Amino acid sequence: MIGTFLWFLTVGLFGIPIWILWKASKKAASLDFRLAQNDASLLEDDGVIVTQMTGLPLGTNIVPNAYVMVAPEQPQLEIPHVHQETIWPDKTIQN
Question: Core-most of 38, 45, 49, 83, by most CB within 10 Å?
Fold first, then answer.
């Protein structure tokens, strides 16, 4: 009887750290996914503290405790392609 109790105690004591590690890894994977998806709700989530912002354009002002507003994405500008014409086999003119 005591042997059975000790086995359950041993399994429980090993199970708690494994559960804590599993839960932490699940939370980290979820955070990585939300960051990759640019989830705006991360800024208002109680479990996430933003300590550093990267990738901001030059001249950006950071105002702490400001209301967060997500701006629509701006359209990409098309880059003109360089056209090449071959006049002679060894000479090329670029327009």
Answer: 45
pLDDT (tens digit, 9 = 90+) per residue, 66-78?
777 777 887 777 7
- Give tens-digit pLDDT for 51-67: 777 777 788 877 777 77
Q: How deeply is 39 buried, as exposed, middle or buried, from its count of CB atoms within 10 A (0-12, 13-18, 19+)? A: middle
Quote the CA–CA distance of 49 and 75 in Å, as a whole number. Answer: 31
**In the prediction, which pLDDT does 21 show?**
94
Residue whose tokens read 């590690």: 21
Amino acid identity of 7?
Answer: W
Distance CA(88)–CA(40), nearest Å, equals 56
Boundaries of every domain in the chain: 2-94
